[in-house]
Amino acid sequence: MTAETVDPAAWSCPAPLRDSPTVVMGHGGGGALSAELVEHLFLPAFGAAGATELDDCAVFAVGSARLAFSTDSYVVRPLFFPGGSIGELAVNGTVNDLAMSGARPLCLSTAFILEEGTPLTDLARIATAMGEAARAAGVRLATGDTKVVDAGHGHGVFVNTAGIGLIPDGLDIRPARVRPGDAILVSGDVGVHGVAVLSCREGLEFGTTLQSDTAPLHDLVAAMLHPGSPDARADIHALRDPTRGGLAASLNEIARAAGVGVDLVERSIPVPAAVADACGILGLDPLYVANEGKLVAFVAPGDADRVLAAMRRHPNGRGAALIGTVVAEHPGLVVARTAFGATRVVDLPLGEQLPRIC
Question: Domains in the chain, ordered, with CATH?
Fold first, then answer.
């Protein structure tokens, strides 16, 4: 297929993608526009070579071993922000994508796209941060690539990381396993990363000292899987790290993939005051703000209390909370009960509230 034969009007795609002949920022936001781009452009173009399940990572067998494979690209602006940089983000983000399948991360690739004129001191800071994050996560930076683009055709540094992890025998964590009655747990305060990045962008100040929550989560997942004994595994049905599109996007994706409804108790969702204040100023919903060191878990009701207790014992889960329940009603929809007793639909975001957050 050549560029001359591509006809956007022939795509089986609803508005707004069909109405836009060009890529817009919302296509990378993890919301409805991103989903439409994948469903109506990439998957038809890839055909039989494309993926059959659209999770954070692919799971495949090599001999008797089950491996998880994931890739992600990082374009955060600015490159350095309170609590981290694009370096930590690139390592932790891919480690966490692997961890959401229950995998133990083994190694990562690293690819850099550098803009001509970028200070080598900045690149050294980013590379050093990546090395430190990899050592902390116990993974190797095994291979990589570097490209340079002309000045004015990039934004300093873009990073791509891909990772491979090993999934324990008998473990099956994926959205299709979610069932009515499952408890929905979140590992701590939401919206922190997005507000931390926004606080140092374009002179915006919210009177807060919030720092990004970027962190590797595979050790937390391991603790959740074995909350009482290493010989007894908890029944965790699905995991997701709510990055682009925030908690709202992750819950909607899982609800639609599993064909179930999600009932949230809004006051149970841990939103720190600094995040709530910043979102109030900007007219944002904290549930749509990106996180980088948090996870949401769908757990069988009989194991929910034990898993929640194990999360709270772990440094990366001390603020864990039960925030809702999976229901058979309103399949594919996420509904939140407000503090005033009303309910509201928490829909999949159309585009991106805060671009270039990860």
Answer: 55-171 (3.30.1330.10), 175-343 (3.90.650.10)
